[in-house]
Design goal:
about 450 residues; alpha/beta; Rossmann fold; 2 domains; nine-stranded mixed sheet; 11 strands; globular; binds S-adenosylmethionine
Length: about 450
Amino acid sequence: MISPKEATNTCLGINDSVTNVSELPLNPVHNAQYSFQNVRRSTVTKWTHGLHKYPAKFIPQIPRWALAHCGPVHGKTVLDPFCGSGTTLIEAGLAGADTRGLDVSPVAVTISEAKTTITNLSASHFSKLLSEINDLALDQLDAIRNSFGSSVGQNCNGLHFTWSNWFGVDEISGLVATREAIMALAPKTERSFLLACLSSVSKSCSYLDEDQIKVRLDKNKKPLAPLSTFTRFSLEAFMTQATLAKAYTSAGASFSVDRGSADALPYNSQSIDVIVTSPPYMNAIDYTMNHKYNMFILGLIQPENFKDHCREYIGITERAVRTKDALQVGSTNNQVADGFIESLIDEGSALTANRAYVVYQYFSRMKMMFAESFRVLRPGGRAAFVVGETNRVCGHLIPTAEILEDMANSEGLATDLRFAHVMANRSSMRLNRSQTGGQINREMIYVFSRH
Ligand SMILES: C[S@@+](CC[C@H](N)C(=O)[O-])C[C@H]1O[C@@H](n2cnc3c(N)ncnc32)[C@H](O)[C@@H]1O
């Protein structure tokens, strides 16, 4: 057993040399290391992959490889139970799969729905819709501006009372007026697409630093005008989505995207052929903080429900842990994980008790997620998981990937393949994992099979 504080990241037996690739080989070498260091930006933002920034998003090369390696998936059922911004869903759709996406974040669900939109609108109809949305937003603007103007320091129009720290009255009014107009006028098929476009431009209409996962001010910033920025962005994105929709249709793809939790999958037993996913890291990326204002602007979460919503995530953020949660720490049924949790509890401070819960919550729910993945996979089904290799928690280097592999195996998922991805350029978006407090430099890619 690896003792706390002594774990190293060499225990997985990964070879030292790194192979640079632009696409992974269909059959990577077991225990090898690959890097996408020289990959061109245009290959990562193709289609609507670049519609919305998203922390720790896949570069499309990874799910594309996984679908080919575990497939072919044409006509098969593919699931990403942590679908985030929908990278797997685009690639599975292009490969002609019946594609399911699930995420606990309503922002992720909206972006994933947007990228899987199969629109029937022509460019001229969409353009007409945008000008109607613009007109209605302008009609409502004065009333919304007045309500924000008299509500500084208070919740208003679905925004948390801190809105005035990050948005000017004109900009937040324009964003909310646009949301209201979308909700009133957009056909159901295009609604998520328009909301995702609004979400995508909202930070550039604020004083929020767009390069930060945490909420930070950019003092030198000049916020953009919401209505014209939204209209311009949406029209351009629609042209790409319309072409993508045609490719989905000719590939024979179908989609469903749901909000839910990966440790309680809303799918029938043995109904999924292939899983391709990248679960959250432990104690590394605060998705709820990164998307806090997007959720409010889109009307997806009310400010008074925000704290409870934060507790729904696997890899709960430290700030959402309540004192009473520490009392609920039990066994994860994994000796190594339990060893770290006990050491943190033994250290006896409020901080280490909080972190013990973070570690416990992560591993116990990930174990349930593997059990659920086993249940929904058909016999012979395969699952590709991309996970962070290690996490440092209060000085303890936790061999996260090794623990997760163990858990997957004990839930009946056998390891077929394991290799490392060196995080040179995981994403063309600037919010990638290597820039987070989790200091994750390498991730492990596993292919499991269900016998
Ligand atoms: C690494 S990101 C996935 C990024 C995705 N592969 C992409 O390309 O955008 C992990 C995702 O897990 C989601 N998540 C966290 N807890 C969850 C849960 N209990 N059930 C489902 N999704 C969850 C987060 O909202 C986040 O979108």
